[in-house]
Specification:
This protein is mainly α. The mean pLDDT is 82.
């Protein structure tokens, strides 16, 4: 089988297409979560913590070059200039992104599992018909019943 033919079979399979759609939707969903964290959660967290801006929290590890023209208190300016900085605020933001995304995915899976349980319940509520009794058991029961009826 040629490689082109194998690739075509792989690419056209439902699983590969489902995966591609999931990746595309996941990328779009990630953008939404990033916006939620950056535009909604972090300002509230900053206000609650006394005006802290987590995205600009860092520890400068390297020296500022003499040609530096930016703000020495700006994480982005220092990064652009190539100064080594330990950006823990950026990490906190990404960590919050992950936790929100993980929680949303957890809730989606939980909802889907609840729907699946609802679908299964009608089947489970209907008692299954017992299998027919084998003929030899029926015959033995008839013999037993007839022996019980006969006087001894």
């Amino acid at each position: 089988m040629s490689i082109l033919k194998e690739f075509k079979e792989f690419a056209v399979k439902g699983n590969a297409m489902d995966l591609a759609i999931g990746v595309i939707i996941g990328g779009a969903f990630s953008t939404i979560v990033n916006s939620i964290v950056k535009d909604l959660v972090m300002p509230v967290a900053g206000t609650a913590s006394g005006g802290l801006d987590f995205s600009n929290k860092f520890i400068r590890l390297g020296d500022i070059p003499p040609s530096f023209k930016g703000n020495p208190d700006s994480f982005k300016d220092l990064q652009t200039a190539g100064v080594a900085v330990f950006g823990y605020g950026s990490f906190i933001t990404v960590l919050i992104n992950f936790l929100i995304l993980a929680f949303i995915v957890f809730m989606m899976v939980k909802g889907i599992n609840a729907l699946r349980r609802l679908e299964r319940k009608p089947e489970e509520e209907q008692p299954a018909e017992p299998p027919p009794t084998p003929e030899d058991i029926v015959l033995l029961r008839e013999i037993r019943d007839s022996l019980k009826r006969e006087p001894r």
